[in-house]
């Protein structure tokens, strides 16, 4: 459900608009940029981070059960291989913002770390994460300095200034092309564009987010072994550091967002904030969210709690299902809403998708043992048909 909020702007506007309000087709109707700030502080990077953390925990859980039955890591590798196929189909046929290919490839990488000690996983994860965050921060701060400060006027940096500004034109022009295809092109034209112009775009995304994805998977594996998800930690301490991480990370992220606002939401300012220091400020929030939600989940017995848990158990089906629904909502050959909704209206679409997830997930699981895509993935992994109906 959080992933939908993180992705809704990319579904309904050019991809540059997710970071940069100037990327919207028409006004974004966000006076002062406060909705941008709210999303930046509460959603962006946190939902994907939480999803990644849980994916790592799921890898460990799966392997513990596999080892108990005498299976080896090859079963997990086969499972991730099928996930890669799902991800590539998703990327080319439904939506260019796919993350499953990244999860599959990073998951294959962390298979080598499955038997590491918990402390080794924690240390390796934090070192790689922090080093990656510092490298990206330095790189994009350099871009910001050259493009948007008086430093760029230095004659010695004239060539770098020109190249950086030219680099901005590439994604902006490509976003305009894709917007035209979404508004006026057919589904086949969009697929053809991805095959011709972006056939390796998923590898670009892999390079950009692997610095975050691999260490968060390792952290998820370590926290699973430590008992974060099954009540083996002291709940009082877990609640305390959960709130500390969530509120402390939110405060530092808010300071960063207010700095971007003061700079006028310029292109390279937002790029720097999104891809650089926010990696550091959001990590405590991701860990805090995981800690607090793990405490809440066993008590989620009410109407809303049960339906939220059911939506989570069908995360794979809901993730791909959302892309399928949004294809019809925004494509020019269907409801034709791409580029026509401002930021508040896009959030309404996201909330409607929440309603769909909450409405169908629990009734489905009352009748069936798995979500439809969870069942298909399981059958492909083990090479046999499992009973679906309860």
UniProtKB/TrEMBL annotation:
Keyword Oxidoreductase: no
InterPro entries attached to this UniProt entry: Bact_Transport_Assoc, DUF418
Alphabetic keyword roster: Membrane, Transmembrane, Transmembrane helix
Domain DUF418: 223-383
Membrane spanning stretches: 49-68, 88-114, 126-147, 205-228, 240-260, 272-296, 316-334, 346-365
Protein species of origin: Pelagerythrobacter aerophilus
Protein name (Swiss-Prot/TrEMBL): DUF418 domain-containing protein
Pfam families reported for this sequence: DUF418 (PF04235)
PANTHER family registered for this protein in UniProt: INNER MEMBRANE PROTEIN
């Amino acid at each position: 459900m959080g992933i939908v909020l993180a992705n809704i702007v990319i579904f309904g506007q050019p991809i540059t608009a997710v970071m940069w309000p100037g990327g919207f087709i028409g006004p974004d109707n966000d006076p002062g940029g406060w909705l941008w700030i709210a999303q930046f502080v509460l959603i962006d990077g946190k939902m994907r981070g939480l999803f990644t953390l849980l994916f790592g925990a799921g890898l460990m859980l799966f392997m513990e059960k596999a080892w108990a039955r005498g299976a080896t890591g090859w079963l997990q590798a086969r499972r991730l291989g099928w996930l890669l196929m799902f991800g590539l189909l998703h990327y080319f046929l439904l939506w260019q913002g796919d993350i499953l290919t990244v999860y599959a490839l990073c998951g294959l990488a962390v298979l080598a770390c499955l038997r590491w000690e918990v402390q080794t996983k924690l240390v390796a994860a934090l070192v790689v994460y922090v080093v990656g965050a510092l490298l990206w921060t330095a790189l994009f701060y350099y871009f910001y300095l050259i493009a948007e400060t008086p430093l760029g006027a230095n004659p010695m940096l004239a060539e770098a200034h020109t190249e950086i500004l030219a680099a901005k034109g590439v994604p902006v022009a490509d976003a305009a092309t894709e917007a035209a295809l979404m508004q006026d092109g057919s589904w086949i034209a969009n697929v053809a564009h991805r095959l011709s112009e972006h056939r390796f775009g998923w590898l670009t995304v892999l390079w950009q987010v692997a610095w975050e994805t691999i260490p968060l998977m390792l952290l998820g594996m370590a926290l699973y072994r430590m008992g974060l998800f099954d009540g083996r930690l002291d709940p009082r301490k877990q609640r305390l550091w959960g709130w500390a991480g969530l509120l402390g990370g939110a405060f530092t992220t808010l300071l960063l967002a207010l700095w971007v606002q003061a700079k006028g939401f310029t292109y390279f300012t937002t790029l720097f904030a999104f891809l650089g220091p926010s990696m550091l400020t959001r990590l405590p929030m991701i860990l805090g969210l995981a800690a607090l939600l793990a405490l809440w989940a066993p008590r989620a017995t009410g109407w809303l709690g049960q339906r939220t848990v059911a939506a989570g158990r069908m995360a794979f089906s809901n993730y791909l299902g959302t892309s399928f629904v949004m294809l019809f909502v925004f494509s020019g050959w269907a409801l034709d809403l791409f580029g026509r909704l401002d930021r508040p209206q896009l959030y309404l679409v996201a909330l409607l998708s929440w309603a769909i997830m909450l409405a169908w997930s629990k009734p489905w699981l009352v009748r069936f043992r798995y979500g439809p895509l969870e069942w298909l993935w399981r059958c492909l992994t083990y090479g046999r048909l499992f009973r679906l109906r309860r």
